[in-house]
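Subject: sequence -> structure tokens, single chain

Hey, anyone have a minute? Need the predicted structure for the following. Not urgent.
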Amino acid sequence: MVSAVVLVATVSCSDVSPSGCPITDVADSPFTPGPNHPATPPGDDVAWFGTADLWTILPTDGSYELRKSIWWSENFEGAEAEPMPELSVTYERLNSHAAPVVFAAPGTHGESADSGSFIVNGRDPETPGCWKVTAEYRSATLSYTYETGTN
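Reply:
Had a minute. Here:
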């Protein structure tokens, strides 16, 4: 019998916004991917966040701009091996009782010279607020929290 190991990168709550949103601080969880990906992500004032099994890009200053939901994993072998990756992403609005927004698997794939092969699944919700994002891919789970707009 084979047992599954679930690796989880958790949200750091050391940076709380004036509204009380526990914004993830990437400085608390530095991450550098393996040799198939660049040591730093493309863009200014951003850093990799997560583990080798699942990571994303987050701003280093706590600010956040809405974007496509983009993820990387050392276990993702690229579009030919996995054209529709089984990645799901859940957005839970922490300052509301609204139902979570879920982008269920499958996702799609992408590749660029400056960031390697990645998985795309949905887009950040446009509703302002404090959001906890949880992605699941294979045996890995990764969560972070951000805030946009006014509440």
